[in-house]
Amino acid sequence: xxxxxxxxxxxxxxxxxxxxxxxxxxxxxxxxxxxxxxxxxxxxxxxxxxxxxxxxxxxxxxxxxxxxxxxxxxxxxxxxxxxxxxxxxxxxxxxxxxxxxxxxxxxxxxxxxxxxxxxxxxxxxxxxxxxxxxxxxxxxxxxxxxxxxxxxxxxxxxxxxxxxxxxxxxxxxxxxxxxxxxxxxxxxxxxxxxxxxxxxxxxxxxxxxxxxxxxxxxxxxxxxxxxxxxxxxxxxxxxxxxxxxxxxxxxxxxxxxxxxxxxxxxxxxxxxxxxxxxxxxxxxxxxxxxxxxxxxxxxxxxxxxxxxxxxxxxxxxxxxxx
Length: 322
What we know:
This protein is an alpha/beta fold. The chain has helices at 37-49, 65-77, 104-118, 137-149, 163-176, 199-206, 230-234, 236-239, 247-260, 264-273, 288-297, 304-312, and strands at residues 3-5, 12-14, 17-19, 54-56, 84-89, 123-128, 153-159, 181-185, 209-210, 282-283. The strands form two sheets. The chain has an eight-stranded parallel β-sheet with strand order 9-8-7-6-5-4-3-10.
């Protein structure tokens, strides 16, 4: 495993982040394809054995059961001081007022609930899952700063928003002496490169670490075009992200992978990791081979001709995922 710093912080993180949306009670929430605790634990253990120390979940994943499963597994198999545990706040956790969003009330309630489910006194990275247009950013940032001051989070991160919103948040935090964001978790892969236009330059200038979600485009980059899976059939959000215009890129990944004699996933991940602003991609895993491919991708170096081939069929997209 390779380790690096998260942006300009002194925090050491593994160059792969294990995304934990795949782990959760299938009967809770709206992800029927998730793995229950018995099926999840061997994969979490495999990730630890491979040297992965960075684990990303969210309070809304399978209605909190992802945090519960991940917390129990890491407590049993990991060493807390070596682990970087990240979770998120924003999505709806209960019906009625204040059950979602980034108000002070919602944040202070959500962090305590997440810590209880994770079975830890603090998270290393506490992230806003999306921008909340209904709450003043000053209220959100001050509440997050208080979470850090209380010792319940070590660092703050953000996810999927417009670059102007992220810049506004960073400027506002610094103007008030509040804790700024040190990471950006955004939608980036060979099928959606729109973050290269504005968000990535902002992150590079700010020294913010980038941890892209869906680096394999919901699995589309790992298989031939048109192949269906149980997740692709039921993932309504994923269906909004990609379209028929993406086939040329998917085919190019297959061509490069075949020429190299490696799985498509390794090619797609190696392409994401070659971007210098990327700290590490967030990988999902439901089978041991998914983790094996991700680790192998760390050593795969694409040449200029391969990169040109992979990028050649790309068409501009409307930003998607937020």
